[in-house]
Amino acid sequence: MRAPADERVIELAPSVLPCDFGRLGEELAALERAGVDRIHWDVMDGLFVPNITIGAPVIASCRRYSSLPYEVHLMIVDPERYVREFVDAGCELITVHAEATRHLHRTLSLIKSLGVRAGVALNPATPLTSVEYVMDQVDVLMIMSVNPGFGGQHYIEAMDAKIMAAVALREATNPNTKIEVDGGISEETLAGCVMNGAEILVSGSGLMAHRDHLAQAVANFHQLARDALV
Ligand SMILES: O=C(CO)[C@@H](O)[C@H](O)COP(=O)(O)O
Ligand SMILES: [Co+2]
């Protein structure tokens, strides 16, 4: 008997990190025209990760340039301090690092109390057991496939097993949780992520390497994802 068709819908979420921050509005509009599914904002504070990027005011000022869902990846310490600001800036998914907040359950409850989706990101070395008792609160579980703080890094292949284990944890605790993978995703690594169970793919340098023919690249990424589901 054939296995049930894999009916996952794979979403492509480009990271804003490789964009020209002096032309963000135009870059966002171009990404939407090219057919991406959502926009992934990487917020870094120079403490949780070495780099500093942008804050909520920049996202708020860019809200009018795209109708796509905005998700924010908070690579900041004590993210609970700023959750409301990013919701007000127009983000529908707020993802915090389990390693960056002292009271993860409380932080997730705060995010959901504001009427948006709550995500948890795990650094490559952080075990899935750190979220097993909060999965009922987790709308998106994001597996970092690079060490956070930089774009353009290589996919960490040891995360293949972690993605599969994340799927098993989701099935055992909260079937509504989506699995996202962030870091080093390109034509070369995308299919493996999907085969392992990823549903939302974050790509920065891998996708923007094709900025001169973005629509064709997005179509190719989507086709590779569909082919990996068969
Ligand atoms: O959060 C991060 C890095 O900390 C990611 O979102 C990267 O920004 C994705 O960029 P690539 O690895 O695809 O270049
Ligand atoms: Co990110």
UniProtKB/TrEMBL annotation:
EC number: 5.1.3.1
Gene: rpe
Role this protein plays: Catalyzes the reversible epimerization of D-ribulose 5-phosphate to D-xylulose 5-phosphate.
Family annotation (InterPro entries): Aldolase_TIM, Ribul_P_3_epim, Ribul_P_3_epim-like, RibuloseP-bd_barrel
Presence of keyword Metal-binding: yes
SUPFAM superfamilies per the UniProt record, alphabetical: Ribulose-phoshate binding barrel
Keywords from the UniProt entry: Carbohydrate metabolism, Cobalt, Isomerase, Manganese, Metal-binding, Zinc
Residues annotated for a divalent metal cation binding in this entry: H40, D42, H73, D182
HAMAP family named in the record: RPE
Binding site for substrate: S15, H73, G149, F150, G151, G152, D182, G183, G184, G204, S205
Major enzyme class: isomerase
Entry's Gene Ontology cellular component terms: cytoplasm
Family under the similarity heading: Belongs to the ribulose-phosphate 3-epimerase family.
Protein source organism: Ferrimicrobium acidiphilum DSM 19497
Reaction(s) the record says it catalyses: D-ribulose 5-phosphate = D-xylulose 5-phosphate
Pathway per the UniProt entry: Carbohydrate degradation
Any one Gene Ontology molecular-function term assigned to this protein's record: metal ion binding
Record-given protein name: Ribulose-phosphate 3-epimerase
